[in-house]
Hints:
By secondary structure, the chain is an alpha/beta fold. The protein contains eight helices and six strands.
Amino acid sequence: xxxxxxxxxxxxxxxxxxxxxxxxxxxxxxxxxxxxxxxxxxxxxxxxxxxxxxxxxxxxxxxxxxxxxxxxxxxxxxxxxxxxxxxxxxxxxxxxxxxxxxxxxxxxxxxxxxxxxxxxxxxxxxxxxxxxxxxxxxxxxxxxxxxxxxxxxxxxxxxxxxxxxxxxxxxxxxxxxxxxxxxxxxxxxxxxxxxxxxxxxxxxxxxxxxx
Length: 211
Ligand SMILES: Nc1ncnc2c1ncn2[C@@H]1O[C@H](COP(=O)(O)OP(=O)(O)OP(=O)(O)O)[C@@H](O)[C@H]1O
Ligand SMILES: [Mg+2]
């Protein structure tokens, strides 16, 4: 599951690229889009259109669901036959706090994307504290991160003092927008310069959930 209280930090981006990595590693995948904006579901429809022309493009089905109906969505996901399921969730967790916390408790692992800024830190850190006290296994993922900047080191150190941090961070990548506009993940691009970023992240997640 991918969740953060802050909007635009990369939740849907993480979901679709990890779904694509998991599909490339031979897993049957399923995405569940709990966000009424439908970002992940729209991307998946774009992918289906592309697959009609390019059947080699691996299937990444996505179901849309309402947070209020999370139990039914969970049952549907469990009976789908998928090896791995990613839940994309809306920002503003407080609006649906009870459903989001219940869903989090069912997830094997939760990723909290965070960009290297104080604003992101102010939003992501209380959320991680709340998840930890609810016993949810979770890790921060630094997104749009540049290792060469001072802020990267400062923010990463703060995150490490509060929870687990995924050892692979995501730089700001042109390829992310290029791929997603076509219904693809960066792993699908034939000459991707950044495939190893999500490949590495998928290896980390797969090990965390013992896949
Ligand atoms: N590492 C990155 N490099 C370049 N662009 C990125 C990166 N991560 C995210 N983006 C872009 O930033 C925008 C917001 O990302 P995304 O939709 O994944 O955020 P979100 O957390 O799902 O937003 P929301 O809270 O609205 O659901 C998108 O246009 C996405 O393509
Ligand atoms: Mg989103």
